[in-house]
Write a structure and sequence with these properties.
Shape: elongated
Order of helices and strands: EEEEH
Low-confidence stretches: none
Distance between the termini: 38 Å
Structural class: alpha+beta
Mean pLDDT: 82
Number of helices: 1
Largest sheet: 4 strands, antiparallel
């Protein structure tokens, strides 16, 4: 069940945020932000372009910031630093 716009929802011990948006022909869509293994994941509408109003952009910014904060805790729990590993 989608959460209200910009608010977190629990999914298998994950925090998930859904932000309402539209596509290029004004159909309702959403962007999903989640934290997985200490990483912030942004999922767009499959095969679509996400079109956001100024208010929706603010909601996305808030969701990304919340996810970033949550990811720091997950990384600290795993004792991983903020530097990426390059292989």
């Amino acid at each position: 069940m989608p959460s209200p716009s910009g608010s977190p929802a629990a999914a298998k011990d994950q925090q998930v945020w859904r932000v309402q948006c539209g596509d290029v022909i004004n159909r309702d869509r959403c962007l999903t932000v989640l934290v997985e293994d200490g990483n912030v994941v942004l999922v767009g509408p499959p095969g679509e372009t996400a079109r956001l109003s100024a208010g929706q952009l603010g909601e996305l910014r808030h969701a990304l910031n919340e996810a970033w904060e949550a990811s720091k805790g997950a990384r600290n729990d795993r004792k991983v630093n903020d530097q990426p590993e390059w292989r």
